[in-house]
């Protein structure tokens, strides 16, 4: 930031710590850009942006409001190599430590802030390109000087911007990239210019991406924005948001494509982790209740499908916790989840409903539900080895199957639940310890033929 001969900014206010950290981050490192304002003016801008971000996080404002804050930072000419990255890092760290804002809300606001910054930067960059074209039409003699000045500014921003930027011709040949784009993928700018756009295709690209790019090259579409996976030189995947804009010549014919690339790998990873946590049981890794009911609802969308459920409840599991402790109980649940998964086909879903209750969804069942119940009973007849303890823990299994058109999701689940409780009522037998280091929990278990026999206990 520019120096202020009249003295530094006044400190204080509700966001003083955030502003000071932000200003310090932007002042550190190599000075690769010039902000046309005094230190006091820059401090006032950061104070206003910090207050706006905090207010948006607090009152649940729409992402558009935060996007405008990012745009304001870019319009103030904070466009150096590391401005955006340092700003996102400071804001993310500050609000994460504060703890008052949920992680997914922070990620959403940071994404909106970044998108606003990128859009404002793109608008400025395209405006510079447009000024070059207009100047050439207006006056051939005068345009030379303006062209040189505008190109110098364009080149400076192109080279120094922290956002990946590249130009390609209408054949898809890369003709120029900045350092940020090249380093993002592990290349030098010269190495990138030896590639074609199609050399950077990735197996996880959206199927509609390349037809859309072809439409840009034909001039049918002037701008396209999408999420794209790039192959890094070392083999890993770099996830990005890209914005492709068509640059036309004086006659309106397509001449170049300008691409702006933002690395969102960390944000995408965070999004996937949050999605996983929202749909999976944290202990066993199985689907949780929410994911199970989503899958059950989807199965009922096919009225001709015969949907099956297998409801499983571990017998006397509370005795395991009471006798051996919750650590043993948790490991037993993990092993039980593995055995249930081993009994299922790829199209079947195993979910933990809570505690020691599990349910298996068979979305299109013939006789699979009965076979599945037999498999579950057989696999739970084998003892569990848990931290030096040998435990025999049986399972009560209830099943239900019906055509989607003849029942409802609630009724089918209730029928499987009732069936399981009938099975549990038929089980009997106490918990019997065998020795100080090895124990067996004896319970009756139901065989595939429906009969009940006592489980064997061995030492």
Structural class: alpha+beta
Indicate the mean pLDDT.
80
Annotation, overall tally of beta strands? 15
Q: Give the CA-CA distance, first to last residue.
A: 76 Å
Largest sheet composition: 5 strands, antiparallel
Q: Quickly count the helices.
A: 15
Strand content: 15-25%
State the shape: elongated
Oligomer: single chain
What does this structure look like?
- The longest helix has 36 residues, at 103-138.
- This protein is 49% helix and 19% strand.
- The protein is elongated, with a radius of gyration of 31 Å.
- It contains 15 helices and 15 strands.
- The protein has a 5-stranded antiparallel beta sheet with strand order 2-1-5-4-3, sandwiched between helices. A 4-stranded antiparallel beta sheet has the order 7-8-6-11, with helices on both faces.
- The protein has helices at residues 16-27, 39-59, 63-75, 83-98, 103-138, 140-160, 179-184, 189-192, 209-218, 265-279, 289-299, 317-324, 326-343, 368-381, 409-426, and strands at residues 164-169, 174-177, 223-231, 237-248, 254-263, 306-314, 349-354, 357-362, 384-386, 389-391, 395-403, 431-432, 440-441, 444-446, 452-454.
- β7 (349-354) and β8 (357-362) form a beta hairpin.
- With 459 residues, the chain is of the alpha+beta class.
């Amino acid at each position: 930031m520019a120096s202020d001969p009249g003295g530094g900014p006044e400190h204080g206010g509700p966001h003083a710590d955030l502003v000071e950290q932000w200003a310090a981050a932007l002042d550190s490192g190599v000075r690769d850009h010039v902000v046309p304002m005094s230190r006091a003016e820059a401090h006032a801008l950061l104070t206003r942006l910090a207050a706006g971000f905090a207010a948006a996080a607090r009152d649940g404002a729409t992402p558009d409001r935060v996007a405008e804050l990012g745009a304001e930072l870019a319009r103030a000419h904070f466009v150096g190599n590391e401005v955006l990255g340092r700003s996102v890092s400071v804001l993310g760290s500050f609000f994460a430590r504060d703890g008052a804002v949920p992680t997914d809300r922070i990620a959403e606001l940071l994404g909106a802030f970044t998108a606003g910054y990128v859009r404002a930067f793109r608008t400025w960059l395209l405006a510079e390109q447009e000024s070059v074209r207009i100047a050439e039409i207006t006056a051939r003699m005068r345009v030379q000087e303006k062209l040189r000045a505008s190109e110098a500014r364009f080149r400076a921003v192109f080279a120094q911007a922290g956002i990946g930027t590249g130009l390609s011709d209408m054949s898809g040949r890369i003709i120029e990239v900045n350092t940020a784009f090249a380093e993002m993928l592990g290349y030098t700018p010269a190495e990138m210019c030896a590639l074609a756009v199609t050399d950077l295709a990735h197996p996880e690209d959206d199927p509609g991406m390349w037809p859309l790019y072809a439409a840009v090259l034909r001039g049918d579409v002037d701008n396209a924005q999408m999420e794209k996976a790039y192959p890094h030189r070392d083999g890993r995947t770099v996830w990005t948001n890209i914005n492709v804009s068509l640059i036309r010549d004086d006659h309106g014919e397509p001449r170049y494509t300008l691409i702006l690339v933002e690395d969102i790998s960390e944000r995408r990873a965070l999004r996937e982790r949050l999605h996983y946590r929202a749909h999976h049981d944290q202990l066993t890794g199985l689907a949780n209740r929410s994911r199970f009911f989503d899958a059950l609802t989807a199965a009922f969308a096919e009225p001709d499908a015969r949907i099956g459920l297998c409801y499983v409840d571990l017998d006397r599991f509370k005795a395991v916790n009471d006798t051996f402790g919750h650590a043993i109980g948790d490991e037993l649940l993990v092993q039980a989840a593995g055995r249930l998964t081993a009994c299922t086909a790829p199209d079947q879903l195993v979910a933990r409903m809570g505690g020691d209750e599990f349910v298996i969804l068979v979305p299109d069942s013939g006789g699979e539900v009965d076979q599945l119940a037999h498999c579950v009973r057989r696999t739970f007849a084998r003892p569990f080895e848990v931290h030096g303890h040998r435990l025999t823990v049986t399972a009560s299994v209830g099943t239900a199957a019906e055509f989607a058109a003849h029942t409802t999701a609630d009724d089918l689940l209730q029928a499987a639940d009732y069936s399981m409780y009938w099975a549990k009522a038929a089980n009997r037998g106490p918990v019997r310890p065998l020795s100080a280091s090895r124990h067996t929990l004896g319970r009756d278990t139901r065989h595939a033929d429906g009969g009940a026999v006592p489980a064997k206990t061995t030492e």
